[in-house]
Specification:
The chain has 3 helices and 8 strands, in the order E-E-H-E-E-E-E-H-E-H-E. With about 150 residues, the protein is an alpha+beta fold.
């Protein structure tokens, strides 16, 4: 798996959240969010949609798992956006894997990424969530990124 190290700044985002088992309903939320972005004229920029599973289903009941879909917020626009919330994503060091944008490849990356980190001497920072990043220019090339926080 190809990866690089990046330093991310704290990032203000607009987001929608669902709570429940991870799976097909997360894709429904993603489509709902994309429709909301389009309806509000926020789908034409070069920004990235960021998907953030906030809970580890190995230790959190499936019905309590939270999943956010986010877009970097333009802080110069002070609007009261209906239908979404705002918050800040944590900054810090991340190992970012560039992946083919298919369900199979992304799922495999989730299962293999931690072994890759260990092999290369990186320690995951479990205080911050792993993120999937869908930058417009990368998605147009049928790729996406898996960003794993490290110490």
């Amino acid at each position: 798996m190809n990866f690089y190290i990046e330093m991310r700044e704290e990032t203000p985002v607009l987001y929608m959240r669902r709570t429940g088992p991870y799976g097909p309903e997360n894709a429904v939320l993603m489509e709902t969010f994309k429709a909301w972005l389009k309806d509000h004229g926020l789908d034409g920029g070069s920004g990235a949609i960021i998907a953030v599973p906030l809970d580890d289903p190995r230790v959190t009941k499936a019905e309590d798992c939270r999943y956010d879909v986010c877009l970097v917020r333009d802080t110069s626009r002070e609007e009261d956006w209906d239908g979404v919330e705002s918050r800040t994503l944590d900054g810090g060091r991340y190992v970012t894997f560039l992946l083919e944008h298919t369900q199979e490849v992304v799922q495999r990356a989730w299962t293999e990424c931690f072994a890759v980190l260990e092999k290369h001497g990186y320690v995951p920072d479990i205080s911050r969530p792993v993120m999937e990043r869908y930058a417009k220019q990368i998605v147009e090339d049928h790729r996406c990124e898996l960003c794993v926080p490290i110490l």
